[in-house]
Specification:
Shape: elongated
Number of helices: 3
Radius of gyration: 36 Å
CATH architecture of the largest domain: Sandwich
Largest sheet: 26 strands, antiparallel, barrel
Distance between the termini: 79 Å
Strand content: over 45%
Low-confidence stretches: 1-33, 708-714, 733-737, 752-758
Structural class: mainly beta
Number of domains: 3
Mean pLDDT: 82
CATH topology of the largest domain: lipopolysaccharide transport protein A fold
CATH superfamily of the largest domain: Lipopolysaccharide (LPS) transport protein A like domain
Number of strands: 43
Helix content: under 10%
Length: 758
């Protein structure tokens, strides 16, 4: 039967029936066994009552007893009450038609879409628009966070829990929970607050907090993240406690105090900003006095990164890291520079791009770590590149540069360089072949106020024509290998390069350095970066590259080899003390890359001297990579004819998922020349839905640059050993760094085998 009652505040729709139909639950997506989906408190939600006006109370029950004189309606048996998005299931309920108050005794189930609650009774105060449930168990619908409360009071803006617990663990026996005198949850803000809270691990109280706020979803919220504990020979016992500050949707900050028993207290801070026309990232770390040093000096790092875009043509970028001393990175580490880095690079740049013009203004600075002669700053450098399509498929370009250099140690040691280089080129490209011809003329002028002890001219100038011709043939065929069809390509190429000799000994070295002689480098038009040295050349480069592509056009194998043949030996060297090579050909450069399967890769690069029959440089890597949680990489590297000593090193790196809960990561690099381990790291991590613990240890060379004046000395070096323990509570704060990220912070780090030249 169905009957309507008129009341001053509410309209009550009564439906009595002996059988109740329930809405079918939507199927859940399968999830890994490690993280079971918490079972909803309401297994069989009520079917919504149709045609119910907003603000009206709808009731479905087996029996109703309505007293018109007292304006109280009582309902019995399978009672279901609906008010807008709120649903109540109980066995007995009374509704006051005059006030709109609802009382339910016995076991009740309540759901408003945000929270589900099972309780011993239910009371709704319509005047306060607040419901009260005692002896309650609750569960947040979106996140699965749950707990218990002696008394739960609910309003549209807030859930208030008295004598309550909170956890995001899906099990009934959680690994961790907050037990608090009072907990407040806000649906709109997606965060919670707790007063007089105890944090419990496996049922044991760990620490007490008078007040704590925490996220109840993945949304960002101001509050403490969980600390990291560690120990090392250099720093002693360490603890770091990050505090996250959510300033605005596009702005946040993290403060991370770090205590080191051997050094003192360090403050670290990061500020991030994101907007529609750019972004910014600012970092600082400061230690007021280092107790491990005799002079107890302060030590610091600060970094700024800023990108800005103005329309389609203009953009700016600023990036720089600054440290108090050369040993800072070795002693403290950083997310922005590796411990093995030999220099810090800083620059600010403003760019303009259009269809024909590219103009760049740059200020850059290098800081060499160690007692080396400081390099020159570029303050500033303005480059422009203009391109114009000329008749007969030719192209005209004009490159110009104005640079001012200043010695970092001696401010009077400066130089200004002007460079202009027009070029005319012709490029013909067909499916079976392509060739390129370039003719350029470079004029460079210097105004030098250099160190008087150096034999540099005041105003040297240099004029150099360059002719370059390169041709390639593209051959292709279909072949079958073990029943599979592949596309086999062969690309032989030849290049002739001519640059006459000019005496450049009167020009200082400001930004020039020797480039890598790999396969691609053999076909460059210049031997040196920068413009302080342009090497003479009368040479032919011959090389070839062959590849296999599968039916999906994926390259499964590539082999490349090439060599330069000199008609005349180059007389231009980087420094006047360098010896002119008398060899009539360069090292043979060979590169090979193989995709053995979708998960296995092999890469090798070799520079082999045919005269000495010796390997100058080589790097070989084999990798099996299933995903970022399962990979193994083996590597071998050699380098000879170095200033200090030859290098030969083998290495192993791996990240393995032992089980859904256990992961292991390790790397190991062994110096074959000196028979010692240069770098080793191992980490073991346990993780489930509620918490994770990571234990790691390392052993690495102590790169004391200020003591040794450069790289570690030959012989037995000083090593630094350390361990770290990190406990991660999921649901209150988390560490997004994977074990692979941690390995990348080691001395040598991880490199994908197809990008070893980086």
């Amino acid at each position: 039967m169905q009957k309507k009652f008129q009341a001053p505040m509410w309209t009550v729709l009564l439906v009595c029936s002996s059988s109740v139909a329930y809405a079918q639950q939507s199927p859940r997506m399968p999830v890994p066994e490690i993280c079971p989906v918490p079972a909803p408190l309401i297994q069989h939600p009520s079917q919504p009552i149709d045609n119910l006006e907003k603000g009206a109370i709808g009731v479905r029950a087996d029996r109703a007893d309505i007293e018109s004189s007292s304006q109280v309606a009582s309902f019995f048996g399978n009672v279901e009450v609906q008010l807008d998005d709120q649903q109540l299931q109980t066995e007995q309920a009374q509704i006051n038609q005059l006030t709109g108050n609802i009382n339910a005794s016995g076991a009740t189930l309540f759901n408003n879409g945000y929270v589900q609650v099972s309780s011993e009774n239910f009371r709704l105060n319509s005047g306060e628009n607040r419901a009260f449930l005692s002896g309650a168990k609750y569960q947040l619908t979106a996140s699965g966070a749950h707990g218990k409360a002696d008394l739960l009071s609910l309003s549209p803006q807030q859930i208030l829990l008295e004598g309550s617990t909170f956890t995001t663990c899906p099990t009934d026996d959680p690994a961790w929970q907050l037990s608090a005198q009072q907990i407040s949850l806000s649906e709109d803000e997606e965060w919670g607050e707790a007063w007089h809270a105890k944090f419990e691990l496996f049922g044991v109280p760990v620490f007490y907090m008078p007040y704590i706020n925490f996220p109840v979803t993945d949304a960002r919220k101001t509050g403490f993240l969980f600390p990291t504990f560690g120990s090392s020979q250099k720093n002693g016992f360490e603890v770091e406690v990050p505090y996250y500050i959510n300033i605005a949707p596009n702005m946040d900050m993290t403060l991370a105090p770090r205590y080191m028993a051997e050094r003192g207290a360090q403050l670290q801070a990061e500020f991030r900003l994101l907007h529609s026309t750019g972004y910014g990232n600012y970092n600082v770390a400061y230690l007021a006095e280092d107790k491990s040093l005799a002079d107890r000096d302060s030590r610091y790092l600060w970094r700024v990164e800023q990108a800005q875009y103005w329309g389609d043509n203009w953009r700016g970028y600023l990036n720089g890291t600054f440290i108090s001393d050369d040993d800072y990175l070795n002693d403290f580490g950083s997310d922005f520079a590796g411990r093995a880095d030999a220099q810090l690079y800083r620059h600010a740049q403003l760019d303009y791009h259009s269809e024909d013009w590219q103009v760049s203004m740059r200020v850059e600075d290098f800081e060499l770590l160690g007692t080396y002669r400081s390099p020159y700053r570029t303050v500033p450098q303005i480059k422009s590149y203009y391109s114009l399509a000329a008749p007969l498929n030719m192209n005209f370009t004009l490159f110009s540069e104005l640079s001012h250099f200043q010695n970092q140690d001696v401010s009077s040691d400066t130089a200004t360089r002007i460079h202009i280089e027009p070029q005319l080129s012709y490029h013909l490209e067909q499916p079976g072949y392509d060739w390129l011809a370039e003719l350029s003329y470079a004029y460079t002028y210097y105004n030098q106020d250099a160190d008087p002890t150096l034999s540099h001219s005041k105003n040297p100038s240099r004029s150099l024509p360059t002719f370059r011709w390169r041709g390639r043939i593209n051959l292709e065929r279909e072949i079958a290998i073990k029943g599979e069809t592949y596309t086999h390509t062969l690309q032989p190429q030849i290049q002739y390069l001519y640059i006459p000799y000019r005496d450049q000994s009167g020009i200082g070295i400001y930004d020039a350095t020797l480039m890598q002689d790999d396969y691609q480098g053999l076909f460059r038009a210049r031997r040196f970066t920068g413009l302080d040295r342009i090497a003479d050349a009368n040479q032919v480069t011959i090389g070839a590259s062959t590849s296999l592509f599968d039916r999906q056009a994926r390259e499964t194998a590539r082999i490349s080899f090439g060599q330069i043949y000199y008609f005349e030996n180059s007389r231009t060297q980087l420094f006047n003390t360098d010896q002119v090579s008398a060899e009539n050909r360069s090292d043979l450069a060979l590169e090979s890359r193989f995709r053995i399967s979708d998960n296995m890769y092999f890469n090798s690069s070799i520079q082999y001297n045919l005269e000495d029959k010796s390997t100058r440089k080589s790097q070989t890597t084999f990798e099996y990579r299933l995903d970022e949680f399962n990979l193994i990489q083996l590597s071998h590297r050699t380098a000879t004819n170095l200033l200090e000593n030859d290098v030969e090193q083998v290495g192993m790196l791996g990240v393995v998922e032992l089980s859904p809960r256990w992961q292991l990561a390790s790397n190991w690099y062994y110096d074959l020349q000196n028979s010692r381990t240069n770098d080793a790291f191992i980490a073991l991590q346990y993780s489930d839905c509620c918490w994770a613990m990571r234990i790691s240890g390392y052993r690495r060379i102590n790169r004391n640059l200020e003591l040794y004046g450069g790289p570690p000395q030959v012989g037995t070096p000083e090593f630094d050993n350390g361990i770290s323990i990190q406990f991660i509570i999921k649901g209150l704060g988390r560490d997004n760094r994977s074990l692979l990220d941690m390995i990348e912070q080691s001395l040598f780090g991880y490199r994908h085998p197809f990008h070893l030249s980086n």
